[in-house]
Structures are given as structure tokens and as C-alpha cells.
Amino acid sequence: MFMLQVGIIGAGRIGKLHADHIQHMCNVRVRAISDVCIAGLDTWASEMGIPVVTSDYHDVLHDPEIQAVFICSPTSTHAAIIQEAAEAGKHIFCEKPVSFSVETTEQALAAVKTAGVKMQVGFNRRFDHNFKKARDVVQAGQIGAPHLLRITSRDPEPPSAEYISKSGGLFMDMTIHDFDMARYVMQSEVVEVYAQGANLIDPKIGELNDIDTAVINLRFANGALGIIENSRKAVYGYDQRLEAFGSAGCVTTNNDRASTAIVATADGVQMDKPLYFFLERYTQAYIQEVEDFVRAVLHDGPIVCDANDGLQAERIARAAKESLLSGRPVKLEHGPATMQHQ
Amino acid sequence: MFMLQVGIIGAGRIGKLHADHIQHMCNVRVRAISDVCIAGLDTWASEMGIPVVTSDYHDVLHDPEIQAVFICSPTSTHAAIIQEAAEAGKHIFCEKPVSFSVETTEQALAAVKTAGVKMQVGFNRRFDHNFKKARDVVQAGQIGAPHLLRITSRDPEPPSAEYISKSGGLFMDMTIHDFDMARYVMQSEVVEVYAQGANLIDPKIGELNDIDTAVINLRFANGALGIIENSRKAVYGYDQRLEAFGSAGCVTTNNDRASTAIVATADGVQMDKPLYFFLERYTQAYIQEVEDFVRAVLHDGPIVCDANDGLQAERIARAAKESLLSGRPVKLEHGPATMQHQ
Amino acid sequence: MFMLQVGIIGAGRIGKLHADHIQHMCNVRVRAISDVCIAGLDTWASEMGIPVVTSDYHDVLHDPEIQAVFICSPTSTHAAIIQEAAEAGKHIFCEKPVSFSVETTEQALAAVKTAGVKMQVGFNRRFDHNFKKARDVVQAGQIGAPHLLRITSRDPEPPSAEYISKSGGLFMDMTIHDFDMARYVMQSEVVEVYAQGANLIDPKIGELNDIDTAVINLRFANGALGIIENSRKAVYGYDQRLEAFGSAGCVTTNNDRASTAIVATADGVQMDKPLYFFLERYTQAYIQEVEDFVRAVLHDGPIVCDANDGLQAERIARAAKESLLSGRPVKLEHGPATMQHQ
Amino acid sequence: MFMLQVGIIGAGRIGKLHADHIQHMCNVRVRAISDVCIAGLDTWASEMGIPVVTSDYHDVLHDPEIQAVFICSPTSTHAAIIQEAAEAGKHIFCEKPVSFSVETTEQALAAVKTAGVKMQVGFNRRFDHNFKKARDVVQAGQIGAPHLLRITSRDPEPPSAEYISKSGGLFMDMTIHDFDMARYVMQSEVVEVYAQGANLIDPKIGELNDIDTAVINLRFANGALGIIENSRKAVYGYDQRLEAFGSAGCVTTNNDRASTAIVATADGVQMDKPLYFFLERYTQAYIQEVEDFVRAVLHDGPIVCDANDGLQAERIARAAKESLLSGRPVKLEHGPATMQHQ
User: Fold this and answer.
1) Chain A contacts of D130, Cβ < 8 Å?
2) For the Gfo/Idh/MocA-like oxidoreductase N-terminal domain, which residue ranges apply (chains A, B, C, D) (predicted)?
């Protein structure tokens, strides 16, 4: 079996998570990991069986044994590293978003295209069993022509003020997953966005000029309407649901729970709460997205969520912010060929 | 036990439904029923034990034995009959909407206020066991401060073109129930509306300048956001669900089904479809709303959905239409005292 | 419309319940009610619109206006009244069980047969929407050949010691409904019974030589196996479920709840408890069984649960008690024609 | 981190499954694997990174690098290998059942005790998230004193005739998992068994003197009653559910499904079927049981299902068969100390 060697740029939580998953796979190994702060990283890498640790990501990009890189560094660095990685001929897996600027993202993607390397964006939810099933049901025509989409996406608790200040705002940081999910399930481009937001959970978030509660309306090229509901704090756990409704039916997904047990007592009838957060809910999805990327690289196969998917989600996020500020719906232009057949 | 005698004006489907329910109650009887078309009505009334049948509703209004009237005639006649009934000193139960014009409704309600009679508007869904429970959960503070509301409201099939042409449009005919439900559950006034609509089900509906698919965004005085999803055709049955989310939790209601049976075979695992339509789903709610009205009249008690509730729902429907036409959010003004304590 | 007049013998809880339901029906009226203790009954009957009240049930049996009687008196009196009612030519609705002795029941049923009157036994659960659906699924062949049946039947709290002392024991009082349900759903006779019991809830029940917890195994003529689980005390409410499994699938019914609402908070995710007890759970079933009896009498139609059904359930209850005492399975003999086509 | 080296005896489906899981763990490796038939095993072992392949399990037992062995060979060989492994000082993980004879199992366990090695029996379901939750709920006292237990355990299709002929019969092959589950959840020994069986699925199973459908009643030392329902063929998939009921409540577990999606169309409302069979349903449980064994060996910790658990389940299976043949309940004797505190 052919073995792929990869490098990981950025050894934060998500970089380490990918590394851990990769080291348990049979056809791929992490050859190098880089981070600007490498204190303690040696020990961890040694336990994980990763031979090379460096504070300079160029070491990763220029290692001839490495065929693909995982870009898990802060968003502000993504675009530059993508361009360099593309020029170095490495296939690219990049965490979302590519950048906070559509123009910057477009430049980075142009470099990817020129280099002819593959690029996958880390929209892990496309690999979740529930959302994948919803997409398959829609694609199979079981709900007929899509008319309405609803995505409920709520975190169990808000991130730190520091994180929020660098996050690009709710739409770019959190809703971007939902924008991608909307395109993935509906298989049609978003042509109009209207966004409402509120600061209901923590005044500190408002002080950072961000919102913590939002409703975003989407209008799709196929005529359907969509809604995304966001909250930074659902006290009962990570709430990740979706419903697609059409001329022939409706598909509804619910949350995963730790068990199916139902406990009935004199006090009431209780079931488990939803799994706590993304690490619990999307464990299999994180593994699956990497397996899929590895498969695509090794066998020159298609990428499930590619550079254009990253770009489109960012464009919608950008339009949502514009709508929030203006209080009016915002249109998105689409050339005839922006949506690839999937 | 004191016996209330009522008259019913309008012997269409809903008028006959109320009559049937009333005749099965122990403290109220239908004394008279009127309709412009009384062909065959005598026989039916005789079987139901209703002594008086007339083609002139004034006979009902002037019958001294009658203390309350149910106005079930076409919407265009409501306001005038309300005024006459109020002047005649009759308590009033009126089907929704009171009128298609906020001004007309306000005039009618002024007459009610002047006469000092009670008036209930037929928002039967307030009496549904599922929605009532959601409201109680919110009112008890179990979800904390409300942040988000979602109402899913889909009919199993569109009405006839003739009905639609006189319906006042989707918002005034169908969504009006959801507008009332939003106020009922959130216990806060709607201060802004944004509406999107589409004609996806039947082109004939579009030819009548109406829509069959809609998403309506609400902003409440308490800062919460709300969404209503409408479709005129859910092929799997009447879809009536609601979710209210807040700082301390979330309450979600599902559809009622004919049975709890789950059938697992080699082909799949199947449960019953939602109950077909409003007559099936809201049977108990229709009975309950009448019982409540009768109780309020007999014991001079509070009305669960009163004249002002009817007016506010119409105002929101009107604003929604304005938003649909303009493509922009529309604000609603509220004086300090429009929302009554409930 | 032809009007049926009935008499009710025994004005306890169930007699009054039937009277109340009948007075709300359009084709039947209670003409007379009898009870050995008529203190206060006059007032109640007057409010209900029942013209005749008597302490002697013979007055009911000999009233020429009355075509059918509801026997709701204590079990010890059922058999004698059935015989007299049959001789008087009255159709009979009798609460379960007919008697505590199979021989006594057989004598009473012989009188019914001789007189050619109709007789229905009050197995109200046959008319429950969930159990009816399970039966229909089995009858339609959706689960193929039945292999296994499970009935879970638990009360929310035990009856009084006084009630238990006259009840005939758990099998004759409580499980008898489940024995009938087993035959109804499986559409095959029980040919062997094995019963286990325990006194786990209240030692007073054991002092009365009764049990409060039981598992009863059934073997059916069609080769299938069945299980009934009983408890006199489920602290979370009335637990009434059933599952039938066969060569082509499985049908499972769950409890009814007051609403479909699910409330998620930091403490957990909660749904409503099952409806409290039989009056709540089986309201519609009680109405339906009477409507069905009235229909059968008025239109000379078939009886859904007839005298033989009452007899067979008692025979199984008797065998279960024998098994409990002997600690061994007990066989039931069946002639070729005991199970009627239904 | 200390690394455990293990050997696997028997390279059938389950032996290979354990090897695969072990090779993905970070603190344990498979050093050797043996099978009487090693055709093709070399290639597979090489891909898995297993250095030693042998046709003689003694090579595994005498390898000084190996500290623990997984016995995955046919049941008829278990007891002898256990004795030899114990004498060789190896810790033992043995698939169920230890043997088809209680005496043989007792001898093997005596050798384990003498040698002072740890032994775990492969009751993987104890590690299933649903059953583990049910056990935890019972142990935490949430249902109070246990009164009733029900286990529904149905395979999606029967094994081959050849497998059945060597399986030891339904109780020893299939129900043995349920017997162990009953003890695990109820935390009390089984003191009486009554078993009923039938051959309803495939006459070939009857020709092999086995049954394919069964109901087994259990009576526990704590006074509770239990029921196990078995079928060799549930056409809708692997059906693995449990309910424990007690003085303070009830815990019910349901099947796992591939997704939470619900699809509503004009044809009905459908959810996913249960996961197909044990490899799908118990993937995580298989991993967890090995991780737990490794932890117990490395850190000298307790074994979740030990040699005595294996013995007790076999004793119940034996008693069930005796009951099936005699048609009567069979008692099991228990000394005061057979149930270990867990």
C-alpha cells in the first residue's frame, strides 16, 4: 500500500487533533509538524511518532518527503502559506476560513489553481453521518424540489473574549460552517442574504462589536429559501440540526446523544443531552475528512469540499455582515459556472 | 348550572363545527343559526337540536334569549356584524381575521370596548396541548430569557384558487395564526418584520398574486428574534411545530400522530404521518376555545385571546406584506400599553 | 335517526363514566340507572338528563323502553344479572370479568346464547388507537407470521387493600386486560401459560395472598410465544406498551403523553410522563367501545369483544393462577372452534 | 509509556478484529498470532505489522516477550489453552463461552486462580454505551430496588447450519451474552431459570436439535424477575434493547441507528434501521473491552468481566437448556460469595 507523508503547520488544538487521527491511519503518516511556539512540542511529537519538529513552517514546505500539508495556523496566516505551499507543489488541507477577505482568498486560490495541486477546506460537518444522510436524501430526490432549508447551530458556550476578538466575527467564525452546509445540502448557490443579530448572552461580546445570537436568511439560485439560527450558548449542549423541505417531502436530522437510554422516574422522563461540543459530536467527521483528503491525494480523486467551497462560504459570510450592518438584504453575483457538479 | 344560549352567524364548515361542539357541552346551547344560504340547513339544525334557523343574522342579534354570538361568516362581513352585535349587547366570538384592514378592525374593536361586551378571536392554536405546554414552559421561566423562536407551519395542500382569491393572501389567511402564536409564546410584542416569499408549489397561486412558500423574520420588543416557515403543501401532512430557545434552555414541540406505533420491516422503520389537517390536529383545541369562551362569559372571566390579540396579529400580517413588497424590514410601532398582561 | 335507550346497572365510577359518554352521543340515551346505594344519585342523574333512578336493577331489566343494559355492578353480581337480562331480551354490555369462575361464566354465556341477545365485554383497550394499530399491522401481515409478543402493563399505583381483597387477584383483575389483548393482537388462542409473581411493592398486598409484580408466559396455538409484564406501581405513570414480532417485521407501541414537548436545560432533556392512569389514557377507548356496542345493537352488526372473548380471558387468568401456585406451566384445551373469526 | 505485547491465538474473524483494534492503540502491540490454518495469514500479518505468525499456539504461549494472550480459537479448545496459558504465566482474554461444560470451565478457572494471572471473558456488550448507561442508572439507585428486567436480543439472520451444529445451542451461543447482561445490569445472581423455545424461522435449525426463537425467564437473588427474548432473525436488523424497572423508575435503551435522520414523504415517515449486526453495533464496545483489559494488565487494575462472570453465564445457559428439555423451571445454587462486588 502506498504511504502518504504529510506535514502539519500549526500545532494548536486542531493541528494536534489531525495529527492524532493521521497517526492511527494505515496509509498516511505525519512526517513533520511546525509551530511558532515549540515549547513541549518535541515530547508530544515523539510520543506520537512524528520525526520532525520545527518552528519554521518553511521546513515543512520544503521537505521533499512531504506531499501534502495541513494548514492549522491562525487564519491571518492561511493565505500566504497556501500560496507558498502551492508553489512548493504540496497538496493542501486548510482549516476554515481561508482568509477574512474574499480578495485575499481569491488570490490564494489562484495560486492553487496555477500549481495544479489539490486543496480541501476543513468543513468537517460535510462528513458527519447525519448531515451526510440529509444531503444524500436531497440528492436522491426523496424530498423532490427543495423549497425550504433550516439549520440550527448553537454552541454550548461562547469562546474567550480573546478568541472572539480575532475570530472575524460570528458569521466568519461560526456561521461559515452553516453557510457551507447550506450549499452542500441544497446543491444550489446562495444568491441573497439577510442577516439579523443580537447580543443577548454576554455584554463583553457586544463590546467587541460582535453578536452572539443571529438569524440569517438565504435565497438560493434554485428559488428555495433558507434559514440559519445561531447562538453562542445553548446550556444543554451542542445543538446541530438541519431540516430540508421540498415538493415531495422533508428530511430532519437530530442531535447525537451519548446513549439512547431513557430514564423515567416520578420527577419526569429524561434522555441524554446532546453531545457536548464539536470534538465530541464530530470525532468521526474529523477522521473521515482526513481519510477523504488522503484518498483524493493518493488516488487523484475528487475533493468533497474544495477551494471554491471555501471561497463561496466566505462570500456569504461577508454578505451577511454587510446585511447586518445595513439592515437590508444583500445580493451575491454568480457567474454561470461557479457551482461545480458534485 | 346556569345555561348559556348562543347564536351562530355563518353555517359554513367552521360554524357547523362550533355548533356540533357546543351541542355536546353541558352548560351552553345553540339557540339560533343564520346563513345567507339556508338550503338544507333546517334538516341539519333539527338533527342538531337547534330550534331557530334564519337567513337574516339580525334575527340572531335581536333574540333576547341569546347572550353571545359566534361570527363565522366571510371575513368581509366580520367588522360590520361585530359592531351590530356589540351594540346589541352580545358577547362575541369571531373567527380570524377580524378584517383585512387594520383601520376597520380598530373601528370594530372600539365598538366592542364601548359596549363593554367580551370578544374572543378564534386563534384556536392557543388551546392546542403542545403549544400550550410550550407557552407554559416559557412563562414558567424554564428556558430563561427568550432569545429565538421558530414556528414551522405547513398545510398538507393548498386551498382552491377561489378560496385564495378571497383569503387576503398567505400572511392574512395562514400566517396570521403563527403571528398570534409568536406573541402568545414569547409574551412580547413584535416590533419588526421581514418577509420573504416564493411561488414554488402551484403557478396558479402566483397568478393570483399570492405566494405559497414563505419565511418571515420577527424581532420582539424583548430583543429576541423569531422565524416563521410556511408552506401551502407538505405532502406528508399538516406540519405544526414550534421551538423557543433562551438563556436557560429550549422547548421543542413535535406533531401529533394517529398512534405511537413504529413498524420495522426489511424496507425500513416507519412511524405514523402527522395528523392530516387542522380538523384532525386541533379537534380538542376547537372544543377548548369554545369552552373557554363560555366560561369567560358565564363567570365574567378573562379571555385568552381577545380583540387586541386579533388586532396585533393583523398588524403583523399587514407589515409582513409590506415587507414582502418592498424587500425590506418593516417596523411596527407600539405604545407602552398594547400588550396586556396575560 | 333511530334512538337506542339503555339502562345502567351499578352507578360506581365506571357506570357513571359510561353514562356521561352516552349522554354526549347522538343516537343513544340512558333511560334508567340503578344502584343499591342511591344516596345523591337523583341529583347527579337529573343533571345528566337520566329520567329514571332506582335501587332495584329489576326495574331496569323490565323497562320495555330499554333495549340494552350496561352491567357495571360488582363482579360477584355479573353472572346472575346477565342471565336475567338475557331472559328479559336485553342486549348486554358487561364489565370484565364476567365472573371469578369459568363455570359460572359459561352458564351465563349459555343464557345469552339461548336468548339470542348480543353481549359485549368491557375490554376497552381493544379500542385504544395504539393497540388497534398494532392489531391492524399484524392482521395486514406486515410483520409476517407472529413469533413473539410482549405486553408491558403497569399501573401507577396499587388499589386499596379493600379493593384488592375483592378483586379476584392480580391476574383476574389487572392481567385479564392483557390476556385479552394478547388474543386480540395475535389472533390465536393461548394454549399454555406459565406465571411467576412476586410481592415487591407493598407487604399488605402479600398479606392478602396477592402479588404486585408478575411475569406471565404464553404459548399460542400458532406456535408463537408471548410475555406479559405487570407491576402495580410504576412511579412515572401508567405504562401500557406492546410489541409484536414476526417473520417479516415488528410493531412497537409506546405510551401516550400529555404533549410532544421536549424541554432541554442544563439539567437534562425532559419529555412528558405517560398519561397518569386508565381514565386519562383510555378516554377515547371508553367512548369508542360504547359507540361500537351501540352500532352493533342498532344495526345488528358484529361485536368486537364478545362473550367468548370474556370467557377465554378468564380461562387464561385461571390457568395463570394455577401455574403460579404449582410453579409449572399449565395447558389450556381448545376445541377446534373456540376462536371466532374476527 | 509502558508497552504491552500480546499474542492472539486463533485468526478467525474475531481474532483479526481484536488484532486490528490493538494495532491502533498506543500502549499495546500484537507480537504474534497463531492459527492451525495459516494460509494467507503471513501477508495479512505483515500489513498489520505483526512480526510473528505460527501454526502452533505454544509458540505464542512460550514467547517471553508476550505478557497476555487473546484466545479466539474454537470453543472446544478454550479450556485447554487457558490452563496452558495460566501455567505459562500469561494474562488471558478469552472469547465466550469458556467451554460447553461447567465442570471443564471450573477446572480451567482453577488453573487461572492458581497461577494468579488475570482473566477477562469477551462479554463485549458490557462496554456498549447504551447498556453501560443502563447499568450505571441501576447502580446509582435511580430506579430504586430492581423489580423487572427485560432484554430483547435478536440477530438479523441465523448463522450457517455448520456454525449452529458446533455452537453449543442457542442458549450457549447467543443467549449467553444476555445472561451475562442480566447479571451485569441487575447486580444480583440468577437463582431460577425457565426457558421456552421454538423453531419458527428455519426447519434446518430444528433438524440440528436447536431452536431459533426463545423466551427465558429469570428469577434473581434480590427477588426481581427477568425476561430475555431471542430470535435468530429480525429482518429489520440487529435488535439489542434492554429495560430495567424498579421501585423508583425505569431505564429503557433503544437501538443505535446509522443516523438520526427522519424522512417524511407522502408514503410515510421513516427513520434508519438499527445498525445491521454486532460488528456495526458493537465496534466501540470491542475496542473498549480490549482497552480495559490492557489497562487492567498494565496497571494491575480490576477486570470488568472476569472468569467468574464467564462461569456464571455458562451455568445459567446450562440451566436454561435443562429447563427447555424438562418444561419446568430449574433452580441454580449459589454459595454466599459467588457474586463479586463490582
Assistant:
1) 259-261
2) 5-123
Q: Where in chain B is the domain with CATH 3.30.360.10?
A: 125-276+305-331
User: Which part of chain D is CATH 3.30.360.10?
Assistant: 126-277+306-331
Are the beta carbons of B225 and A196 separated by less than 8 Å? Answer: yes
* CB spacing of C269 vs A268 below 8 angstroms: no
CB–CB contact B253 C261 (8 Å) = yes
Stretch(es) of chain C classified as CATH 3.40.50.720:
4-117
Selected residue of A132, A241, A260, A270 to mutate for chain D interface (largest D Cβ count, 10 A): A260
Would you say residue B14 has pLDDT above 80? yes
Instruction: Please choose, from the candidates C24, C14, C25, the residue with its C-alpha nearest in 3D space to the C-alpha of residue C33.
Output: C14
Every domain of chain A with CATH number 3.30.360.10 lies at: 126-276+307-331
pLDDT(A269) > 50: yes
D-chain residues near B275 (CB < 8 A): none
- Residues D41-92: tens digit of each pLDDT: 999 999 999 999 999 999 999 999 999 999 999 999 999 999 999 999 999 9
Q: How far is B274 from chain D (nearest CA, A)?
A: 9
Per CB-CB distance under 8 Å, the chain D contacts of C202 are: none
> Which residues in chain A have Cβ-Cβ distances shorter than 8 Å to C268?
236, 270-273
CATH number of B125-276+305-331: 3.30.360.10
Q: What percent of chain B has pLDDT over 90?
A: 94
Percent of chain A with pLDDT over 90: 94
Residues of D whose CB is below 8 A from B271: 268-271
Nearest neighbour of D217 by CB, restricted to C217, C236, C248: C217
Cα–Cα distance, A21 to A15 (Å, whole number): 10
ipTM, 2 dp: 0.94
What is C125-276+307-331's CATH number?
Answer: 3.30.360.10
Planar angle of CA C184, C189, C191, nearest 5 degrees: 140
Q: Are C111 and C83 in contact (CB under 8 A)?
A: yes
Give me the residue from A150, A229, A328 closest to B328, CB to CB: A328
pLDDT for the residue C125: 98
CB contact under 8 A, D269 and B271: yes
| Inter-chain CB proximity D154 and C245 less than 8 Å | yes
Q: Which of B62, B73, B118, B80 is nearest to B95 (CA)?
A: B73
CATH for D126-277+306-331, options being 2.40.50.100, 3.40.50.880, 3.30.360.10, 3.30.750.24? 3.30.360.10
Ranges in chain D, pLDDT < 70: 1-2, 335-342
Nearest CA in chain A to C156: A266
Residue with cell 399488605: C204
Rounded to the nearest 10°, the torsion over CA D302, D305, D310, D311 is: 50
Name the superfamily (CATH) of residues A126-276+307-331.
Dihydrodipicolinate Reductase; domain 2 (3.30.360.10)
Fold of the CATH domain B4-117: Rossmann fold (3.40.50)
Kindly give, in sequence order, each residue whose CB lies less than 8 Å from that of residue C169, ignoring residues fewer than 6 positions away.
Answer: C209, C210, C211, C321
pLDDT of residue B150: 98
Angstroms from A308 CA to nearest CA on chain B? 28
Among the partner-chain residues C219, C229, C250, the one whose CB lies closest to the CB of D227 is C229
Q: Which residues contact A272 (CB under 8 A, 6 or more apart)?
A: A257, A258, A259, A260, A261, C268, C269, D133
Give C265's contacts in chain A (Cβ within 8 Å).
Answer: 235-236
Amino acid (1-letter code) at residue A124: N
